[in-house]
Amino acid sequence: MGQRKAPKDGDRKVGRRALLIGGAAAAAGSAVLARDELARLWWRTPGVERPRKEGEVDYGGARWVAASDANWRRADRPDDFGIDMVIVHVTQGSFDSAVKAFQDPGHKAATHYIVRQDGHVTQMIRELDVAYHAGNRDYNERSVGIEHEGFVDRPQDLTDEMYEASARLTARICARYDIPVDREHIIGHVEVPGTDHTDPGPHWDWDKYMRLVRQARTAPA
Ligand SMILES: [Zn+2]
């Protein structure tokens, strides 16, 4: 697996120190300067979130439907956790049943995106946040999760439209976080250490998918 980015605790310490310096500058009569300093640094302070708008999506082609907040936790990625992985899932059910499950606080799992068999993309969790989808805390923190509508034992569920739409989405995610387009960084749920899940299953065509992601990655945005 790819190298994990170094924890950002160092940055946070610098942030706190800079805030103290900012306070001293204010005391010395440079209040405006200190305010600028604070404005630049506030988002690095633990517990302070970046502003976000309800309904905002990270991928232009996606429609927003919010997951229950019991199925993810707030974060400030990629500043608190680096993102270096996309994890591919298959829903084992219909698109509607996956949306319902992710809206259910009792489900305790959800992905950032669901791609429907007709290629429609729904985003349910912001990429800023950590979705519970890999069954592995480290992998959840460093990845974006994408569900695909279908059953692992039904190859006919894995449509060309779905592969193409998902590949465009994954290519944009890889571009955004500078993730290499390879099978160490674009993996199936089954490849997550410790998982008992088998998705995306034996019929998922990795050669085709990776070719489509590479094509989309090099195509003009
Ligand atoms: Zn899965």
UniProtKB/TrEMBL annotation:
It catalyses: Hydrolyzes the link between N-acetylmuramoyl residues and L-amino acid residues in certain cell-wall glycopeptides. It is an enzyme of class 3 (hydrolase). Keywords: Cell wall biogenesis/degradation, Hydrolase. Residues 72-201 form the N-acetylmuramoyl-L-alanine amidase domain. GO terms for biological process: cell wall organization; peptidoglycan catabolic process; peptidoglycan turnover. Its EC number is 3.5.1.28. Signal peptide: none annotated. GO terms for molecular function: N-acetylmuramoyl-L-alanine amidase activity. It holds the Pfam family Amidase_2. InterPro entries: Amidase/PGRP_sf, Amidase_domain, NAMLAA_amidase_2. SMART domains: Ami_2 (SM00644). PANTHER family: N-ACETYLMURAMOYL-L-ALANINE AMIDASE AMID. This is N-acetylmuramoyl-L-alanine amidase. The lineage of its organism: Bacteria, Bacillati, Actinomycetota, Actinomycetes, Kitasatosporales.
